C-alpha cells in the first residue's frame, strides 16, 4: 500500500508553481488578508528560483534562495523561503535537510494559514520518508487541512490514512480515506476509485454502532462516499426486514443530500421496495409487455411463442398455475413504460417481462424500478451500472457482462493491457464507452485511445487517423518534415506512398462496439495507414455472415458472445413440435425469461410478497437457463460470456 502514496514525492509541483502557495484557493482562510505579508521584489526572487527548479537547476535555485537577505522580510516571507528550500531538498531525496527547513518554517508561518497548513503537510511527508511514522502523524494532526488546496488536501488525507493504518488507528485511517474521496461527483467515479474499495472493506468490519458513529462524524460534510455508505446501510436493513431502520437511514440521507439526484434516485427506489412490497400477492401472476401491433408485431409474436412453450412446461403441475397479463406496447417506449405501470398498479403482477428493443427496455425498466418490481429484459438496458440492481435481469448479455469478460484476466493476458476504443456516436455506443471507461479505471488500466465516429458516414479515415496519431501533423511537425524529405526523394523513383507519417500504435487492442456493416468499412482503414495485424474486439452482432466472410482479413478479430450449443435441447424439441420450426434467438430468450422467474418463485413455497421475491434474488448465487447462466456481482446480474475469434476457416472459441 505504501506505493499508493509515492505521489508525496511530487508535492513540490504544487508548492513551486507560480504563487499558488501564497494565495491558494482558500477555504477557512478565506477571510485572511495575506497581501501585506509579501513584497513584490520578494515574490519575484522566489518565482525566479521556482523557474530554475522547473528547469532542473535545483542547486542554482538553492543558492538563489539562500542569497535572499532576511533583514526586512516578514515572518511569512521567511517561512516561504525556508519552505521552498525544504521542497527543493525533498525533491532531491535529502529528507533530513528538508525536514530541518520545514521545522524552521513552521515556527514562522502562523500569519498565513494556508502556508502554515502546507508546511505541516510537507514536514509530515518528510518524516514519513524518514520512517518516523508516529512523528509524521502527530505533525499532520497539527495542520488544518481545510486551509489546503483541494489537490494538497487529498494528499494530506491519503498520507494521514496510511500512517493511521500503519499505527493501528483504524477509525482514524478510515475517516481520512473517506475525506480523500470528497472530490468525487458521481457514484461511478466514486466506486471505480480503488480507495473506495478500501473504505467499504474497512467500513464493513466496524460494528453497527461504530458505523453509525462514523457516518455522524461527517454530518456537516457533503461527501458522496458518506451518502453512498449510508445508502448501503439502508439496503442492508431492507434485506434484514428492518423497515424502521430503512426509513431512518433514508431520512438521514435526504436531509443532507436531498439535492443529489443520483443518491436520491437510489433512496427513492429503495423506499418503493420497502413500502409497497409487503402485501401478499399472487407470485404466479406475471406481466408481459411486448409490441403486438405496428412494425415490431412480428418480433413480439415470436417472443410470445417462446413464452408460450415455457408456460406449458410450468403448468404441468396443477398446483402451480401461472397466469399472464399481456399488454401491447405498439413498439413505442412511452407506451411500454405506461404498460408496465398499468401491469403493476392495476393488475398487481409479481414481475414483468418486456424490453424487446433497447429503447423499450430502458424506459420499461425505469418504470418497474420505481415500484421495486422484478423486470426481465429481452434486450440490453442502456443505463449506467449504478442505476441497475438485482431486480433487473437482462437475458441477452448485458453491456456490463460483455465488458467484464473483455477485462477478465485471461482475456487481458491474451491481448494485452493497453486498451483503446472506437465507438459509434449512438446511445448504445456511448453506453459501451462509459462501461469500458469505468472498467478500465477499476482495473487501473491506461486507456490510450477513446475515439467516437459517426455511424452514418461512409469515410472512416479521420477517426482511424486520430487513434493512430497521424491526424494532427502539428504535434509531429519535426518528424513530418523528415518524412516529407524522404518522400520527395522517393517520388523521383516513381514510388508512391500511402501516407507520410507512420502510425503510432500505443495500444494492444481496440474495442469496436459497432455493427458489422460499420466494422467492415472501418477496419480496412487501419491497413490503409500501415497498421497491420492489430487486435480488434467486438460485440455479439459480429457473429454474422458478413464478419465471417470479411473479418479475418483485417487482423486478429475477436468478439464476445454467449456460448451457443449446436445440440438439440428439450426446449428446441418442444418448440418444433408446437410450431413446426426451429426457435431463433428471440424465441429462446423469451422462453428463458419465464423459466428463470419460475425457478426463483418455486425455490421456496413460503414466498408470498414482492419483497420475498426481491430477497430471493439477492440470496441466489446464480441463475441458469437455455441461453446461459448469470451470477450476481455487486448487485447486478452478470451473464457468463465467451470470446471467439474470426478466422479464415470460420469462428473459433478462444476463451470460455
Automatic annotation (TrEMBL):
SMART domains per UniProt: TPR
Transmembrane segment boundaries: none
Domain (Leucine-binding protein) ranges: 286-613
Domain of life: Bacteria
PROSITE patterns: PROKAR_LIPOPROTEIN, TPR
Pfam families (UniProt xref): Peripla_BP_6, TPR_19
Family as reported in the entry's similarity comment: Belongs to the leucine-binding protein family.
Name of the protein described by the UniProt record: Leucine-binding protein domain-containing protein
Protein species of origin: Bacteriovorax stolpii (Bdellovibrio stolpii)
Lineage, opening ranks: Bacteria, Pseudomonadati, Bdellovibrionota, Bacteriovoracia, Bacteriovoracales
Amino acid at each position: 500500500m505504501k506505493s499508493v502514496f509515492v505521489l508525496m514525492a511530487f508535492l513540490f509541483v504544487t508548492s513551486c508553481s507560480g504563487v499558488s502557495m501564497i494565495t491558494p484557493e482558500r477555504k477557512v482562510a478565506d477571510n485572511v488578508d495575506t497581501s501585506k505579508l509579501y513584497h513584490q521584489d520578494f515574490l519575484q526572487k522566489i518565482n525566479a528560483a521556482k523557474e530554475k527548479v522547473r528547469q532542473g537547476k535545483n542547486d542554482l535555485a538553492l543558492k538563489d534562495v539562500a542569497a535572499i537577505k532576511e533583514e526586512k522580510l516578514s515572518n511569512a516571507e521567511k517561512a516561504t523561503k525556508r519552505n521552498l528550500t525544504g521542497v527543493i531538498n525533498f525533491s532531491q531525496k535529502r529528507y533530513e535537510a528538508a525536514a530541518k527547513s520545514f521545522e524552521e518554517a513552521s515556527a514562522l508561518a502562523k500569519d498565513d494559514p494556508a502556508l502554515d497548513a502546507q508546511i505541516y503537510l510537507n514536514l509530515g511527508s518528510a518524516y514519513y520518508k524518514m520512517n518516523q511514522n508516529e512523528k509524521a502523524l502527530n505533525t499532520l494532526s497539527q495542520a488544518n487541512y481545510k486551509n489546503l488546496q483541494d489537490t494538497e488536501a487529498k494528499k494530506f488525507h491519503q498520507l494521514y490514512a496510511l500512517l493511521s493504518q500503519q499505527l493501528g488507528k483504524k477509525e482514524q485511517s478510515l475517516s481520512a480515506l473517506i475525506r480523500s474521496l470528497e472530490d468525487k461527483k458521481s457514484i461511478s467515479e466514486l466506486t471505480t476509485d480503488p480507495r473506495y474499495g478500501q473504505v467499504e472493506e474497512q467500513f464493513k468490519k466496524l460494528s453497527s454502532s461504530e458505523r453509525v458513529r462514523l457516518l455522524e462524524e461527517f454530518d456537516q460534510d457533503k461527501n458522496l462516499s458518506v451518502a453512498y455508505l449510508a445508502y448501503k446501510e439502508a439496503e442492508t436493513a431492507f434485506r434484514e426486514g428492518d423497515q424502521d431502520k430503512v426509513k431512518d437511514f433514508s431520512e438521514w440521507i435526504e436531509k443532507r443530500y436531498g439535492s443529489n439526484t443520483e443518491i436520491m434516485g437510489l433512496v427513492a427506489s429503495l423506499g418503493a421496495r420497502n413500502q409497497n412490497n409487503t402485501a401478499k400477492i399472487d407470485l404466479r401472476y406475471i406481466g408481459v409487455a411486448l409490441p403486438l401491433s405496428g412494425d415490431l408485431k412480428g418480433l413480439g409474436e415470436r417472443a410470445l411463442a417462446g413464452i408460450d412453450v415455457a408456460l406449458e412446461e410450468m403448468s404441468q403441475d396443477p398446483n402451480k398455475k401461472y397466469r399472464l397479463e399481456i399488454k401491447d406496447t405498439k413498439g413505442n417506449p412511452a407506451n411500454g413504460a405506461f404498460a408496465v405501470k398499468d401491469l403493476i398498479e392495476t393488475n398487481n403482477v409479481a414481475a414483468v417481462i418486456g424490453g424487446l428493443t433497447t429503447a423499450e427496455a430502458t424506459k420499461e425498466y425505469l418504470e418497474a424500478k420505481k415500484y421495486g418490481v422484478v423486470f426481465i429484459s429481452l434486450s440490453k438496458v442502456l443505463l449506467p451500472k449504478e442505476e441497475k440492481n438485482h431486480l433487473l435481469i437482462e437475458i441477452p448479455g448485458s453491456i456490463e457482462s460483455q465488458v467484464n469478460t473483455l477485462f477478465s484476466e485471461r482475456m487481458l493476458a491474451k491481448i494485452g493491457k493497453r486498451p483503446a476504443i472506437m465507438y459509434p456516436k449512438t446511445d448504445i455506443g456511448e453506453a459501451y464507452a462509459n462501461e469500458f471507461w469505468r472498467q478500465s479505471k477499476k482495473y487501473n488500466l491506461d486507456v490510450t485511445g477513446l475515439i467516437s465516429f459517426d455511424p452514418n458516414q461512409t469515410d472512416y479515415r479521420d477517426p482511424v487517423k486520430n487513434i493512430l496519431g497521424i491526424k494532427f501533423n502539428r504535434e509531429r511537425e519535426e518528424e513530418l518534415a523528415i518524412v516529407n524529405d524522404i518522400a520527395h526523394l522517393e517520388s523521383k523513383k516513381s514510388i508512391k506512398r500511402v501516407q507520410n507519417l507512420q502510425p503510432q500504435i500505443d495500444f494492444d487492442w481496440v474495442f469496436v462496439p459497432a455493427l458489422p456493416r460499420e466494422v467492415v468499412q472501418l477496419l480496412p482503414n487501419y491497413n490503409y495507414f500501415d497498421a497491420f495485424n492489430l487486435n480488434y474486439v467486438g460485440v455479439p452482432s459480429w457473429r454474422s455472415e458478413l464478419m465471417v466472410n470479411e473479418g479475418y482479413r483485417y487482423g486478429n478479430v475477436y468478439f464476445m458472445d454467449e456460448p451457443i450449443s449446436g445440440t438439440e435441447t428439450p426446449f428446441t424439441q418442444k418448440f418444433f413440435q408446437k410450431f413446426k420450426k426451429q426457435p431463433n434467438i428471440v424465441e429462446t430468450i423469451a422462453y428463458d425469461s419465464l423459466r428463470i422467474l419460475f425457478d426463483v418463485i418455486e425455490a421456496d413455497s413460503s414466498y408470498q410478497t414482492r419483497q420475498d421475491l426481491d430477497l430471493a434474488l439477492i440470496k441466489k448465487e446464480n441463475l441458469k437457463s437455455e441461453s446461459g447462466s448469470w451470477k450476481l456481482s455487486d448487485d447486478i446480474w452478470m451473464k457468463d460470456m465467451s470470446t471467439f475469434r474470426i478466422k479464415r476457416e470460420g469462428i473459433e472459441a478462444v476463451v470460455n
